[in-house]
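Section 5.1 Outputs to date
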Amino acid sequence: MSTTAKKLTPDAAIDEKDDLIDLVGLSRAEMEAVFAEIGLPKFRVKQVWHWIYHHGVQDFSEMTTIARGLQAELAERFTISRPGIATEQTSTDGTRKWLMNFPDGKMAEAVHIPEFDRGAVCISSQVGCTLTCKFCHTGTQRMVRNLTPGEIVGQFMLARDSYGEWPSAMEPRLLTNIVMMGMGEPLYNYDNVVQALRVIMDEEGINVSRRRITLSTAGVVPMIPQVGADLGVQLAISLHAVNDDLRNEIVPINKKYPIADLLDACRVYPTAKNSRRITFEYVMLKGVNDTPADARELVRLIRGIPAKVNLIPFNPWPGAPYECSTDDDIAAFADIVNRAGYSSPVRTPRGRDILAACGQLKTASERERKRV
């Protein structure tokens, strides 16, 4: 019998000859439904959920609170998947990147960025990207498809496997935070991202607090209030310019949702307050958006929004049309924003040597796909 996973979502690649249903990424209601079809009561869902998401098991035989006969029955009908790993690279600074492959042969990347007392897993939501931001390497890769809830959840589970951080209650841990900042625009894969993050936040499973999850969007304005209502996670906005003419050029979604509309949505974001500030991400491009005048206009634009500004030194990639701003220009920009009362940390580039830094996710997967 084939062990290729079948997904219960429209975007999934389904092998019609395969009768195994992948449990990873299903909502509780979906798991209850497929268990009910074979006569299993709801309490079995709670048991299996706990083993999959709290203990991280990948084989039903490891579920020691379930009788062996039922373990075998579950294994005949279901599977517990992870993305395949095409390559795993570790940077000189400790950043780790996985090039993952999925049952239909498509690929995406996830990254772990370690810090002194914590670490964030950067997760992808699409293969390729819907958008075409000019400074972002992923934006030069055509959109292939959305990732399913299981493929999104599986990225974090794969990272936990890699670091041996099961069960979920393990402390201290290296994988503390999740950032939806990998390949793709999360709000153009909204339903799948919401389902995946709800699985990740479930207190009886993976149990990552919504305060430790940040979702980044380039500005799909109509969906921003819905993120606050459905998830209440931390919000990050890829701003990168302070006027519509420039943002139209480097973040083309701005032509549909201009800066004024985007900031209006941020002002009414349900969880925006001083204790949970919106993060504005701003890539520093030499001679493009890095002047003192740009910094002062940025401060004017975000006035009244509980916010901080992450300044991101541009991370180069082969053929990139931009250069990174000088250290002096970045420092001067940060000083203006800080003096206006907004925290303005300069993000330390991580994983540049393995093309794992912000805006660099593409080259390895494209090269691997062609080689395969």
